[in-house]
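Let us practice reading a record.
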Amino acid sequence: MNWQEHIASVSESGKKQLAILLDPDKLVDSGMRQMVLRMINAAEVDMVFVGGSLIVDADYHATVEAIRKDCNKPVFLFPGSATQLTPHVDAVLLLSLISGRNADLLIGQHVLAAPQIRKWNLQTISTGYMLVDCGNPTTASYISATLPIPHNKPEIAAVTAMAGEMIGNRLIYLDGGSGAKVPVSPEMISRVKQSVRVPLIVGGGIRTYHDAQSAWDAGADILVIGTAVEENPDLLFDLCNARNHC
């Protein structure tokens, strides 16, 4: 399956989607991993993202392989750097950090990754990744040495997303980061959605049914949850229910 075309087709139909972001460092233990995957497999999640800004586990590749083997959803790599590349995924979100001015995360890591991606014949989806200040410093902003877009500046996010689409990004991803205090604002989501024609992913700070409903109503095509589900596993099923009522 061409996953880029599939995501675009579902978004164009108006159907909302839900992704869960898994941190491989937290799933090294097989018992914990199996418990999390049973929950995901039982829920109506549309896709799984695997990766993060910083991965320190030496068994990373084996962990991702085990996740894909036991997961009944498509698994997409959400890589913080070229070192996180693995063949054990359905596609790679090829992230360009367009909210920052760090050349290494705009093209440098991509140059390093390209030969291995070609060797493994991995599908890639060019993704304009935008960090948003949602109330606290994040690993992503620290590791990338960039400033996030201010939470109250939707116009900056809108024109940044517009530029990302113009240079070829097939997805736009607004992210408040892991453990964000508040979600990306509905106003920012709406402004960005109006400025682009490609699917919009939104993550960070989504902790309740209301948060999810507000983001989808504002224009998000795909919502990403991670930390909140670790704190409240039942939230996953609540959000699936919210999506089904959009």
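A brief commentary: The chain has one domain: 3-244.
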